Structure formats: structure tokens, C-alpha cells
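wait is this the right file?? whatever heres the structure
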């Protein structure tokens, strides 16, 4: 069973809790990680590459020369793919690269990702994140107390709801990425060097993955 410390805003431990074994478990299989991440990255592809066939290229309606008697090869259009300014044979067209993944497989992959971060001591749980009027300097001091710095390069902050004031603060800290616990996915957890979340967010994330 995994245990984790709950820290206050100064980075001091105030309590220790046991994590739910159905979500955080070192015996979980890593096999769903690859297909789930592939599906996520595929869904991010735009698929906007497009070419025109001979029928879509403008012009070329008139036959360049008569069919017989010229000694030249027969041609029906100046937009033949063999000609300059002609259409493209089997060229790319806009498409959707995404493919479905079962929800159970997604949840299993996310449970494994979170468990591996806990095992590597890369998960930090704070009692609460409450600011009346968030300031970048104040938030940076909070992160310093939690031993989080720009050197970590990619820190994932998980909360129940990201307030507008906090969004503005985080926009000044380019190594921080904020996500709602209901939207976070396996790719984002695996890509993060550290995961920071509130006690309430941990509870809601656990409830999400238990279902």
C-alpha cells in the first residue's frame, strides 16, 4: 500500500494518508500505456494536408490538340498528373487520425501512470491552494517551499477547478501546466517531471478512477 504526505503551504508535513489500492498499485500492468498514448497523440494531429486531383485543379477543360495526326502522344487535358500544373495522384486529403480506445483501458493506463509517479516520489499533495488575489511572486514562493522550481521543466498542477486569477499567474510560469482532475490523461501525467495536486483533487481523482 502506498502512503503519501499532505503538506501545508510552507512545505511542512501535516498528515500522512494511505492511497486507495484500487487506483495506486505497483502491480498494475504497463501494457495499456502505449496504445493509450498513441491514441492521444493521434487525436492531436490536425490532418489538414490536402492536394488536388486532376478534376479539382482549375482549367484544363480544353483538349490540347487533336487525338490523331500530330505524331504526339494523345492527351485529354493539360491538368494531367504527368504535366506541370497538373493534378496529384493519390495525394493526401484532410482526414481524422483519431481512433477509439475503451474507457476501461484509458483508466487502467492513467492508474498505472499515477502509481509510477507516486512510486518515484514525484507526486506532491498540498492541503489547499487558496489565494484571495493570486500573485506570481506569492505562487513562486509557495512552489519554492514545496521544492518545485523551473529546473523541473514540466510540472503538472491538478485541481478541481482552475480559477481565472490562477490561470493568469500560471501563464507567467511556463514550466507549470494546470489541468482539471476530470480532464487529465495518461500522456500529461507521464510527460510531467512532478505532479502537484490538492488533497481535495486527489480525493476526486481517486473517485474518478475507481468507477
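ok assuming it is, sequence goes like this
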Amino acid at each position: 500500500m502506498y502512503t503519501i504526505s499532505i503538506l501545508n503551504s510552507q512545505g511542512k508535513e501535516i498528515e500522512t494518508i494511505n492511497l486507495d489500492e484500487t487506483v495506486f498499485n505497483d502491480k498494475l500492468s504497463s501494457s495499456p500505456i502505449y496504445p493509450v498514448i498513441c491514441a492521444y497523440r493521434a487525436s492531436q494531429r490536425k490532418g489538414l494536408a490536402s492536394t488536388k486531383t486532376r478534376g479539382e485543379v482549375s482549367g484544363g477543360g480544353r483538349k490540347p490538340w487533336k487525338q490523331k495526326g500530330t505524331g504526339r502522344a494523345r492527351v485529354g487535358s493539360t491538368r494531367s498528373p504527368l504535366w506541370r500544373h497538373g493534378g496529384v495522384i493519390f495525394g493526401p486529403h484532410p482526414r481524422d487520425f483519431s481512433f477509439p480506445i475503451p474507457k476501461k483501458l484509458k483508466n487502467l493506463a492513467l492508474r498505472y501512470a499515477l502509481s509510477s509517479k507516486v512510486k518515484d516520489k514525484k507526486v506532491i499533495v498540498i492541503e489547499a491552494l487558496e489565494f484571495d488575489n493570486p500573485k506570481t511572486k506569492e505562487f513562486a514562493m509557495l512552489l519554492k517551499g514545496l521544492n518545485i522550481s523551473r529546473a523541473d521543466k514540466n510540472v503538472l498542477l491538478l485541481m478541481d477547478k482552475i480559477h481565472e486569477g490562477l490561470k493568469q499567474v500560471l501563464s507567467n510560469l511556463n514550466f507549470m501546466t494546470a489541468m482539471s482532475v476530470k480532464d487529465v490523461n495518461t500522456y500529461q501525467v507521464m510527460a510531467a517531471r512532478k505532479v502537484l495536486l490538492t488533497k481535495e483533487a486527489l480525493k476526486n481523482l481517486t473517485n474518478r478512477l475507481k468507477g
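Residues 103-119 form the longest helix (17 residues). so i think its the right one actually
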